[in-house]
Write a structure and sequence with these properties.
about 0% strand, about 70 residues, mainly alpha
């Protein structure tokens, strides 16, 4: 435990709090990821577009730009 605390430049007394803060950050980030996935899903539904449509457009985008 001392080696971990030293490598993180944290006192051993603060190590548990540091780990708990990291766990909280991970949980917040996971929640944000899920929220963004939902937003993406609803945006695609609103525009009646599938991921396959977007991938096809992205693959063809240089072709479209060459005609512009």
């Amino acid at each position: 435990m001392h080696r971990i605390a030293n490598s993180l430049d944290i006192s051993l007394e603060n190590l548990l709090g540091y780990v708990k803060q990291l766990e909280s950050n991970v949980q917040s980030l996971n929640e944000e990821i899920e929220e963004k996935k939902s937003e993406k899903k609803y945006a695609l539904e609103d525009y009646d577009v599938t991921l396959e449509d977007l991938e096809e457009y992205k693959a063809s985008e240089p072709l479209f730009k060459s005609f512009a």
